[in-house]
């Protein structure tokens, strides 16, 4: 048997990179597909009952959560994980429909604050009820509370491990109807 040559440097050493196994790949595909299926059903029902898209509903919902402190457009874009221009297009439609107002303070013309209007709160209340019903039908009816808790814990662990957990984005303090 021939002796192996000694590498000239550390960079010459070949390290076998770990790769996802079949079960991990299948689980990822199932997770992604589940999210898409449930998302489509939620969006279909939101559009039918309130004419809101999912991003529009989510923007309104986040404004409601932070109603005591108006959000800035930049904060909304960060929470929605969207581009500033995409967030602006969503806000344009919501403002045109009278659901939000945008204000630029005199003391700082570089920021734009966004607030719900009374009409926006009314539409959001209807949309939130629709969202919670369809989420229960597509998600809650099929998992025990302990499974939901375990799933939430696992997803948070993945987000934290990948440096993507942000309280405002991932756990915005959404009250349940019973707690409100």
Q: How far apart are the first and last residues' alpha carbons, in Å?
A: 75 Å
- Mean pLDDT metric: 87
Order of helices and strands: HHEHHEEHHH
Poorly predicted segments:
175-180
| Rough outline | extended
Radius of gyration: 22 Å
Which class best fits the helix and strand makeup?
Answer: mainly alpha
Sum this structure up briefly.
This protein has 180 residues and is mostly helical. The protein is built from 7 helices and 3 strands, in the order ααβααββααα.
How would you characterize the overall build of this protein?
The structure is a single chain. Helices cover 58% and strands 6% of the residues. It is built from seven helices and three strands. It has a three-stranded antiparallel beta sheet. The longest helix has 29 residues, at 22-50. The protein is extended, with a radius of gyration of 22 Å. It starts with 21 loop residues before the first helix and ends in a 10-residue tail after the last helix.
């Amino acid at each position: 048997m021939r002796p192996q040559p000694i590498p000239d440097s550390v960079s010459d050493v070949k390290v076998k990179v770990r790769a996802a196994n079949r079960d991990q790949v299948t689980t990822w595909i199932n997770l992604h597909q589940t999210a898409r299926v449930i998302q489509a059903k939620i969006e279909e029902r939101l559009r039918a009952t309130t004419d809101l898209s999912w991003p529009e509903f989510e923007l309104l919902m986040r404004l409601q959560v932070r109603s005591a402190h108006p959000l800035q457009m930049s904060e909304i874009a960060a929470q929605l994980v969207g581009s500033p221009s995409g967030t602006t297009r969503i806000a344009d439609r919501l403002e045109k429909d009278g659901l939000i107002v945008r204000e630029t303070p005199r003391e700082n013309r570089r920021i734009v604050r966004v607030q719900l209007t009374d009409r926006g709160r009314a539409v959001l209340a209807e949309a939130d009820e629709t969202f919670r019903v369809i989420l229960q039908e597509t998600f809650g009816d099929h998992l025990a509370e302990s499974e939901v808790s375990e799933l939430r814990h696992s997803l948070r662990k993945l987000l934290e491990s990948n440096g993507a957990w942000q309280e405002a984005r991932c756990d915005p303090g959404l009250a349940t109807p019973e707690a409100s």
